[in-house]
Amino acid sequence: MSELRVIPLKGIPEVREGDSVARHLSRALSRAGVSLRDRDILVVKQKVVSKSEGKVVRLDGVTPGPRAAELAEAEGKDPRIVELVLRESVRVVRSGHGVIITETRHGFVCANSGVDQSNVGEGRACLLPSDSDASARRIRKALERSTGRRLAVVITDTFGRPWRRGQTDVAIGCSGIDPLLSFRGRRDSFGYELRVTEPAVVDEVAGAAELVMGKLDMVPAAVVRGVRYRRGEGGVKSLLMSREKDLFR
Amino acid sequence: MSELRVIPLKGIPEVREGDSVARHLSRALSRAGVSLRDRDILVVKQKVVSKSEGKVVRLDGVTPGPRAAELAEAEGKDPRIVELVLRESVRVVRSGHGVIITETRHGFVCANSGVDQSNVGEGRACLLPSDSDASARRIRKALERSTGRRLAVVITDTFGRPWRRGQTDVAIGCSGIDPLLSFRGRRDSFGYELRVTEPAVVDEVAGAAELVMGKLDMVPAAVVRGVRYRRGEGGVKSLLMSREKDLFR
To answer: Which B residues 12-31 touch A at CB under 8 Å?
Structure first.
């Protein structure tokens, strides 16, 4: 295996509804002097994509229902935010200690249905893209057209996890890359068959990109170069565990 | 932020009990022509560390108790493996669909208490190091002595997770690096206070390293260069969520 590089794409301006994310990325690539190569992975933060798709909501237009009011009271949260969290969810998985874990309309299990107030300005909240795999596909197609390269795109968000403090960035959408790299049925050097080994390569790519993006530096994108992956169109949807197989839902 | 590099360290031979992991790493660094720099992070797979510490167990010496026999029957597993899983655990968190999730003696919540049969040869299983933070510290100290650099060491293992298929590598031990990079109380460009933002940088480093290590390529270590982190001695222990705060235990 050869070296992996993660190149931050800086200086992307505040993204507005209707902006082309691919065009923002192209300009940032030029500025950084980076020429894309076949199999490069473009990683983009969810917020950039959400903003371009008009998923920023003004809180003064949100009227909390009784369930949102009750849950907001119990967890010490803004009832308008909780109303959005509930609208974005199909059910609440757990709540407590000021945290609301939901299963979102998209199938993610995460805090607050991914509704987030950072980096959008006061009195506003940002929702996840309606279909992040489709968003990733659009961005990939546009970049492939403009560069002539075969690329992959991963859209990331910052999720907490059970049992461990802190958060890691994970993939909420992808295109051009199979989220899993399966070793099922392969054998180790002793001949032992690897039965369950399927690295979630898109999530490891998301985390690697986060290491150069940070939270405050206006680095909403990165190029990850040198990853071994399979091309594929399953999207992050294919990574989500079915409810029947899930021991924690 | 500048670029991140992840450099695989190949050609480390089969590690034996009593071997110095630091010496194996030093030789691999020489072969790869890599001179360590201050703040480089050495990532090492758990199995290498476990083998050096004699944590490989022969299954023909393991007698399953009645509880192991019952659980093995229910989940379709080798009762001797389940016996080891139970010995390594303080309790079973969930079991079903052929999976046993335990809380280990070390405080991790993971499948099979980290007991693993791959890459150790037939009739054997590998246990986690007794104290991976201490192992990381020993390796770091030895490498710092031999190189004169200030380094960090992260020991990784491959864990599944709820809600998503596949696995990612996470940190089970670290030294010289604070596992979390806290943005608590910092403000975004709109002045919004980030209240819960604490990237679990060691886990993102573990995942980034996995991308160059793979599962079959005998690349049990990597250098991760260019990560922004705080020096610290809390170890991965400080990353584990207390049972009281955990909504999924």
So the answer is: none
DSSP state at residue B52 = H
Unique residue bearing structure tokens 């990165």: A222
Query: Which tokens hold the place of B141?
Result: 């100290």
Contact call for A99 and B249, based on CB within 8 A: no
Domains identified in chain B and CATH numbers: 5-54+129-240 (3.30.1330.100), 57-125 (3.90.1660.10)
Of the candidates B81, B76, B90, B85, which has an alpha carbon nearest to the alpha carbon of residue B62?
B81
Inter-chain touch A248–B162, beta carbons under 8 Å? yes
Contact B192, B141 (CB under 8 A): no
Q: Which tokens sit at A212?
A: 């150069």
pLDDT in tens, B142-160: 999 999 999 999 999 999 9
pLDDT tens readout for residues A79-114: 999 999 999 999 999 999 889 999 999 999 999 999
**What ipTM goes with this model?**
0.95
> Cβ contact (<8 Å) for A7 and B8?
no
The torsion defined by the Cα of B44, B49, B52 and B56, in degrees rounded to 10, comes to -130
* Minimal CA separation from A235 to chain B, in Å: 13
Task: Indicate the Cα dihedral angle A128, A132, A135, A136, nearest 10°.
Answer: 130
Residue position matching structure tokens 């994509």: A49
Question: What is the reported pLDDT for A217?
Answer: 66
Of B167, B199, B219, the CB nearest to A198: B167
Which member of A163, A186, A210 has the closest CB to residue B216?
A186
In Å, the largest CA–CA distance within chain B is 63
pLDDT at B2: 84
Q: Answer whether A1 sits within 8 Å of B248, measured CB to CB.
A: no
Encode pLDDT of A201-217 as tens digits.
999 999 999 999 977 66
Question: Which of A190, A194, A227 is opposite residue B120, by nearest beta carbon?
Answer: A190
Determine whether the interchain pair B247/A162 forms a contact, defined as Cβ–Cβ distance below 8 Å.
yes
Measure the CA–CA gap between B184 and B195, rounded to whole angstroms.
Answer: 5
Q: For residue B186, give Cα distances in angstroms to A101, A118, B75, B108.
A: 24, 11, 47, 30
Within 13 Å, how many C-alpha atoms sit on residue B128's CB side? 30
Are the beta carbons of B198 and A166 separated by less than 8 Å?
A: yes
Counting Cβ atoms within 10 Å, is residue A101 exposed (0-12), middle (13-18) or buried (19+)?
buried
What are the structure tokens assigned to B108, written together? 């991790």
